[in-house]
Amino acid sequence: MLFIIGLGLADERDITVKGLDAVRSSERVYLEAYTSVLMVDKQRLEEFYGKEVVVAHRETVESESDEILKDADKVNVSFLVVGDPYGATTHTDLVLRARERGIPVQTIHNASIMNAVGATGLQLYNFGQTVSIVFFTDNWRPDSFYERIAENAGLGLHTLCLLDIKVREQTIENLMRGRQVFEPPRYMSVSLAAQQLLEVEAGRKGGACAEDTLAVGVARVGSGDQLIRAGTLKQMADYDFGKPLHSLVLVGHRLHQLEAELLRENAIDLESMNAVLKRDYRLDH
Ligand SMILES: *[C@@H]1O[C@H](CO)[C@@H](O)[C@H](O)[C@H]1NC(C)=O
Ligand SMILES: CC(=O)N[C@H]1CO[C@H](CO)[C@@H](O)[C@@H]1O
User: Whose CA is nearest to atom 1 of ligand 2?
Assistant: First the structure.
């Protein structure tokens, strides 16, 4: 059996009991380490599981799926995914390859930012399409997410923005020389994401993510020191949310009274929050 197991958001203890049983029954355990990053290191996982954990980087999962799936028709193999297995990427490739070989696949879910973002007090039913925001470079500033944010905004819906994570980045020189030397990981902060959104808005001028658009920044969701703060995008651009991982929600204009109440509770500045709510937002009761 190939188990694809969600690890939840914060640490080694977020795995479900079912997931833990599967790991303990497995001959080999892989940890997918490219779409997101758990807040604990591999050693803590290994101690907790009592098993060696092999970190599978993008290269490993795609080019070495043979190794991952080896004998999985006879023994159990676990493939661990931070968050929920179907949170952001779907691991379709691995599942299809397993099916081709007649290997049964079982998915064991756990929390992902896609549902944990409910901690902001915004109702999951009122979210539209999720977007990803990548680090802008001098000559690469992709902003196609703007259309999706605008579509959501047009319906009054919230937008969850997943923020870029760069792990195992190589300099062009190291890449060209084929050297497996990697740059330190980089995680996009709420404030950088807000700055980029404001820059895109300045060019597009559709009003979907303007300075006064309300937003909620979240950091380290699911861990003991999670932080949730609400304010305008302009305030987000200046606010330090501390250590990674961060995500950002743009608040839709159709807001339930209870959602607004939690925004106020998390406000960076209550007075400006109330002014914007009163002027730009329609509150449903
Ligand atoms: C492999 O997983 C299956 C399904 O959960 C379980 O029935 C079986 O006992 C496991 N194999 C071992 C060796 O633990
Ligand atoms: C959403 C979800 O299923 N979360 C679970 C992840 O695993 C831990 C540990 O078993 C549970 O407590 C969570 O409820």
Answer: 111
| Pocket lining for ligand 1, CB < 6 angstroms | 1, 25, 76
**Domain 114-284: top CATH class:** alpha beta
Cis peptide bond upstream of 245, omega within 30 = yes
Query: Which residue out of 28, 76, 78 has the highest number of ligand 1 atoms within 8 Å of its CB and is therefore the one to mutate?
Result: 76
- For 64-126, where are the alpha helices, taking DSSP H only? 65-69, 92-100, 113-116
Task: Look over the chain and give the mean of its residue pLDDT values, rounded to a whole number.
Answer: 90
Closest C-alpha among 116, 44, 120 to residue 83:
116
Q: Where are the domains of the chain?
A: 2-111, 114-284
On the 0-12 / 13-18 / 19+ scale of CB atoms within 10 A, 108 is buried
Residue 84 assigned ligand-binding role: yes
Task: Please tell me the residue having the least CA distance from ligand 1 atom 1.
Answer: 76
The 10s digit of each residue's pLDDT in 187-229 is 999 999 999 999 999 999 999 999 999 999 999 988 889 999 9
DSSP 173-186: HHHHTT----PPPE
Can you give the pTM of this predicted structure? 0.81
Q: What pLDDT score was predicted for residue 38?
A: 63
Q: Starting at the edge strand that comes first in sequence, how are the strands of the sheet with 77-81 ordered?
A: 54-56, 28-32, 77-81, 2-6, 105-108
Q: Is 253 annotated as a binding residue?
A: no
Task: Classify domain 2-111 at the CATH topology level.
Answer: Cobalt-precorrin-4 Transmethylase; domain 1 (3.40.1010)
**Atom number of ligand 2 nearest to Cα 116:** 1
* Other beta carbons within 10 Å of 205: 8
- Looking at the CA of 28, which ligand is closest? 1
Q: Atom of ligand 2 at shortest distance to CA of 111?
A: 1
Residues with CB under 6 A from ligand 2: 8, 14-17, 109-111
